[in-house]
Amino acid sequence: MNTVDALRRYPWTGHAVLMGSAQRAWQPVEEVLAHWGADRSAARAAYERFVEEGWTLGAQPHLCGGGLIRSLGGQTAGEQARRAGADQAYDERILGSGGFVKGLLRHVDAVDHRRLAWPGYQLQDLLEATAGLLGLVPTQLTSQSRDRKVCQGKALVIYTGREWLGRALQELAELTHMSSGCASRAWGRGRRLAGQLDLAEALKRQKGSYVP
Fold first, then answer.
1. Both 166 and 148 in a single domain?
2. What are phi and psi of 120, to 5 degrees?
3. What is d(CA 158, CA 31) in angstroms, rounded to the nearest whole number?
4. Contact at 8 Å (CB) between 92 and 66?
5. Most CB atoms within 10 A, among 113, 130, 167, 169?
6. Rg, C-alpha atoms of the chain
7. Is residue 150 within 8 Å of residue 141, measured between CB atoms?
8. How many CB atoms neighbour CB 3 within 10 A?
9. Share of the chain above pLDDT 70, in %
10. How many domains does the chain have?
11. DSSP state of 121
12. Quick one: 126 and 200 in the same domain?
C-alpha cells in the first residue's frame, strides 16, 4: 500500500473493516473504536489520524518483531539493561516495556480467571441472571424488542457471554436477535454498563457463589 487511502480500501486487512470499507462478522470493531471515542464517526477519524501519523514515519526497524529485547533496542541494549539490574517482565509475543507486559498479562489472566470461574454456567443461566437483575424475563432478552431496558440486558448478555463464557459474537447476536454489527456495538455498551453496575458482584448475589 502506498497511501492510507489505499489501505482503507484494501479488503485483506483489519483496517478496512475498522474504517467501514469491508465487513466481517467475526472481527471486533466497536471494541477497538471504543479506545478512540464513544461516537463511531469521531472514533474512526481519530483512529485514522493515528494511522496517518505513524504512516509518515516510514519503516521503523526497531518496531519490527516482538519481545522485550526488540523493545529495548536490540540484543546489546538488552544485555546492558540486564547487567544494570533492570529486570523486566518478558514475553516474546509482546512488544513493550516490562511494565506494559505485566499489565497486559494481568488483564489476560483476569479474563481467563472469569471464564474458569463459571464451570457449568450456560447461556440460559446468564439470561436468567441478567433478566432477574434488570427486572425482566429471560425471553425478553431473546426477543426482537427494542425497549431500552431490554436493550441494556442484551448488551450485558453479549458482553458477559463473550468475555466471561468465551462465546462467539455471532452466536450471541443470533441469540439476542441482533445483526452482527448491532451486537458488536452492544458489546461496547455492555462493557460500560457492566462497570457501572459492578456486574460481577451483582450477579453473585443473583445466581450464587460460582459467578466470578
1. yes
2. 75, 0
3. 12
4. yes
5. 130
6. 21
7. yes
8. 10
9. 67
10. 3
11. -
12. yes
Range of the domain at 153: 117-207
Pinpoint the alpha helices (H) of the chain.
4-9, 14-18, 30-33, 40-55, 68-72, 75-83, 98-116, 123-134, 138-141, 148-163, 169-175, 180-197, 199-207
Same domain, 11 and 83: no
The H-assigned helical ranges of 84-179 are 98-116, 123-134, 138-141, 148-163, 169-175
Nearest to 126 by CA among 27, 25, 208: 208
156, burial (CB in 10 Å: exposed 0-12, middle 13-18, buried 19+) = buried
Which long-range contacts link 141-147 to residues 24+ away (Cβ below 8 Å)? 141/176, 142/175, 142/176, 142/177, 143/177, 144/177
C-alpha cell at 182: 448491532
Question: What is the number of other CB atoms lying within 10 angstroms of the CB of residue 211?
Answer: 22
Q: Which three cell numbers stand for residue 75?
A: 540484543
The model's pLDDT over 184-211, given as tens digits with 9 standing for 90+, comes to 889 889 989 988 888 777 776 765 544 4
State pLDDT tens for residues 108-154: 555 554 554 455 668 888 898 899 889 999 999 999 998 999 999 99
Task: Specify whether 30 is located in the same domain as 82.
Answer: no
Q: Take residue 28 and report the three cell numbers written for it.
A: 471486533
Q: How far is residue 152's CA from residue 35's CA, in Å, rounded to a whole number?
A: 21
What single-letter amino acid sits at 8?
R
49 and 84 in one domain? no
Residue labelled with grid coordinates 516495556? 97
Amino acid at 212: P
